[in-house]
Amino acid sequence: MATNPVVGFAPGTQVMSKPASGAPNCPPGLEYLTQLDQLIVHQQLEVMEILTGFDFKNRYQIKNSLGQQVYFAYEESSFCCRCWCQSHREFNMTITDNTGLQVIKIHRPWKCCSSAGSCWCADSADCCSDEVIVESPPGQVVAKIRHAGSKWLPHLEVKDATDQVVFHIWGPSCCLCQTICCTEDLDFKIYTKDGETEVGNIAKQWAGAVRECFTKVSHFGIQFPIDLDVKMKAALVGATMLIEYLYIESQNDNNNNG
Q1: DSSP string, 46-94
Q2: Which of 60-67's residues contact partners 24+ apart within 8 Å by CB, and which partners?
Q3: For residues 41 and 58, is the Cβ–Cβ distance under 8 A?
Q4: How far apart are CA 6 and CA 19, in angstroms?
Q5: What whole-number distance in Å separates Cα of residue 14 and Cα of residue 98?
Q6: DSSP codes of every residue in 143-210
Q7: Quick one: how far is CA 58 from the chain centroid?
Q8: How many helices (H) and strands (E) does the chain have?
Q9: 48 forms bridges with which residues in the sheet?
Q10: What is the pTM of this model?
Q11: What CA–CA distance (Å, rounded) separates 159 from 258?
Q12: Which of helix, strand or coil describes residue 250?
């Protein structure tokens, strides 16, 4: 298994202890998820990004409800992609556990006709539908999350390794608003494949006036059934990253460019 010697630990960081054993057929490193029904995703503040205005590689701490770090995620992308494509860029997101073991890889391929977060623009054409591919362990695909078309609400499909739809994720509105005057969480609700039963939620949380106004730092909360397959829990982490780039960072870019 590949390891990464650099694991993100802020001063005073508490870490979650690794469970003694995982579920049957559990990919290495996903044992932590067997005990969890929620995750908190905190993007790390990049001071040089604030000072220069250039997009730096995103980094995230992924924690449990007690605030203990479970995983650390870091983006791999080129400077040119971050400069010219901004939130629509191609990237690889590597997620490691607290020992540096590479547990999950999330790949977002570049799309020549990206839907850019538009609800109505995503359709059956692969060139227009943004997606991420989730691997665990790296090299073994466990899920694919695809931006699906809708008339108004953001819509993602979560598919398993056999390309079967497992979940639908519906966002609050294609006009996402989160400002000093609008501090409510942005909820992306997770439904079963028939679209009838809500089973979880991905919430873009209000990070405070200073962070929201002067930085592009994002905080997310992910809720899911505790008995959900760990591979699908990993898929929902991938869905969170697609939401981050497709809707949240895209809105930030539009505000900055406006």
Answers
A1: -HHHHHH-PPPPPEEEEE-TTS-EEEEEEEE--HHIIIIIGGG--EEEE
A2: 61/8, 61/10, 61/13, 62/95, 62/237, 63/16, 63/39, 64/16, 64/32, 64/36, 64/38, 64/39, 64/40, 65/36, 65/38, 65/40, 66/14, 66/16, 67/14, 67/40
A3: no
A4: 22
A5: 10
A6: EEEEE---SSS-EEEEEETTS-EEEEEE-S-SS---BTTB-S-EEEEEEETTS--EEEEEEEE---HH
A7: 11
A8: 5, 12
A9: none
A10: 0.84
A11: 35
A12: helix
Query: If you search the block for the tokens 């020992």, which residue do you land on?
Result: 99
Provide the terminal-to-terminal Cα distance of the chain, rounded to the nearest Å. 45
Close Cβ partners of 239 (under 8 Å, ≥ 6 residues apart) = 132, 145, 156, 158, 169, 188, 202
Q: Which two tokens stand for residue 131?
A: 């997606």
What are the tokens at 28?
Answer: 């290495």
pLDDT in tens, 193-238: 999 999 999 999 876 555 555 456 789 999 999 999 999 999 999 9
Single-letter code of the amino acid located at 71: Y
In angstroms, the CA 35 to CA 160 distance is 21
